[in-house]
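Bug #77: duplicate submission created two jobs. Keeping one. Sequence:
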Amino acid sequence: MSESNYPNLDLISSPADLKGLSSDQLTLVCEEMRAFLLETVQETGGHLGSNIGVVELATALHSVYDFRRDRLVWDVSHQCYPHKILTGRRDGFEKLRKTGGMCGFTNPHESEYDLFHTGHAGTSISLALGLSLGMQHDPEPGRAVAVIGDASLGAGVAFEAINHAGSIG
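Kept job's structure:
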């Protein structure tokens, strides 16, 4: 039996597994996730830099929120690989972006944690705002989180969503 290079990451099969971990343990999970991404994405191809850059962000979001109730929208999904790992799809990285394999973007057919098959820059704020407004009618409304990068933030639709959010408070 071979020993895993990712003993802490091996313990994570869903975001619930992050709950209650110490900051030191979360740091180790992040270090191993970054190493895993470097190893696998270099083999399969895909968006490496944007995913390496959001490892801690994805881990923090999944540690704090419950995205079965709350809502998470990744803008262009170029940075969703850590999210995929934390939501139980690490084994799918062998066939990332290959025919019959895991999609390189969020995909509702893959996971309950993926709300949209996104790939167009600038739409996350508008989507999260709509989800937030819809959840206001729930007995226990969740929260909506949009993850958007600097390039996508320059899209006109992102500014429209920010203005809309500001106008409704």
